[in-house]
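Escalation from tier 1.

The customer reports that the assembly of two entities below gives different structure tokens on two consecutive runs. Tier 1 could not reproduce it. I'm attaching the input and our single run for tier 2 to review.
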Amino acid sequence: MKFNGRSGRWLIILPPLLFLLVFFLIPFGFALKISFAEVAARVPPFTDILTRTADHHLQLTLSPSNYQYLFTDEIYGYAYLYSLRTALFSTLICLSVGYPMAYAIARASKSTQNILLLIIILPFWTSFLLRVYALEGIIRDNGLLNSVLLHLGLIHHPIQIMRTGLAVYLGIIYSYLPFMVLPLFATLEKLDPTLLEAAADLGSPPWRIFLDVTFPLSLPGVIAGSMLVFIPAVGEFVIPALLGGPDNLMIGRVLWDEFFGNHDWPVASAVAIAFLVLLAGPIAVYQYYNVKQQEA
Amino acid sequence: MEKRYSPLLLTFLCVGIAILYIPILTLIAYSFNASPLVNVWGGFSTAWYTELTHNRQLLQAALLSLEVAVTASTLAVILGTLAAVALVRFAKFPGRLLLTGMVNAPLVMPEIITGITQLLLFVSMMQMFAWPHRGFTTIVISHVAFCTAYVTVTVQSRLQSADRSLEEAAMDLGSGPARAFIEITLPIITPALLSSWLLSFTLSLDDLVISSFVSGPGASTLPMVIYSKVKLGVSPDINALASLIICAVGACVVAAGYLMRRAEKRRDSEMHSADHAPDG
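Tier 1 run:
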């Protein structure tokens, strides 16, 4: 659309651009700044990195101590690795459960497809927090799962799932499964059936067709779905806080405790910045595929 | 694709759907449990629902959350639609890549990072301009930021598939570009606007992490109150509240989906009959 003149265009571009710049991007600058400050007993609880000396010169005091602290206190290294590992395995499990689901939906007739999609999307619309809470009702020591297993005589004592790593895995898989299924469905649905027929005509067994044709062609969906699960899962707070035990220290929880428990804003900022650096790679991959798909 | 289902695929589909739904359905069932003990069924009762209406803390939090959600999703739909129009219609402008990045990044950015960075911004702004006070305003601003991303992505895909030729025809007939957009394209993207408003509304209503960071003393949203209660263990009145929220949201989404599909079908059939109308 040719909005008359340049000014008309900028009326459309500027409001969202400026808003997101000020309230989404620039905040990272403040976090970076405060990660080099030191904790202080004042409001807000950190020192200024830019101070005026007695002879009216501006003095920049950058304190790397927060980052050094991240390396010396092993809890941070442990939490980063634990978060990455948990997110990675959860993503793989989501992929192996979500792929057949997406494939089954893609093969259904159009009207069944719409109903199935609604069934998958509906939990995504309902409260994340409440769904994690609902899961607690299933996996508690006296929850539904243990009651059923006891009743069937499969176990004789309730198995402890709550406050273990298993509970965190179950929580992530349960909460993020729709994020995996939807992008996978979107690519599988567009798959050209003639390609599969051609492969079959040429004598490929079904598993070869899957490995040589279906899976490579669905790769954009695999990557989009995996990133949509992996990246938020690394930073997950609610699930480890509600379902995990004291050992299941994920980085989101450490950051939360540093901030709300210890009131150490500079260290919390340093944790956030270090975390962002860690996620820069996966986020860049996600962005790259997103832009490519939007332009396709 | 061929319509034959292997039993394996069907099993995966059923198991997956069961995983998604069993916890929610169990929660709803137990909200009608007369016994306050979570593992004992004490008969059917709606006592926990009546109890909710007397809980002032929960009611106040619910009211704040609703106000935040309505304000934030309305603003997000405006900003997100502008961003979507800019990205789809203007092939080149300075800052295009920046805008693309900023509307996609919040979709995957862990909330905990967004929350802490935005809080640090608000605190620094408060030092510099004595604004904004932490509470309603700051919660709305941060919710608008992440909801805008969802709106943009939804409206963007709808705009891309919208037929430009109708708008061009309107302009050929002498409409200004703004008027052509409002009269032709806006009705086409209205379903996307409605669904993205609804999505923003539910996302805002549900947000715990970002609100906890940017909120101030005295401003507790519903998820913040629920979280602090749930942290202490399963409680039957939260079961009742959760069932109410889940059912209300579920009903809205299903109804909205149904209405939109019907509107779409009607429009498609009108388009179809218009295509086949005799000339002149």
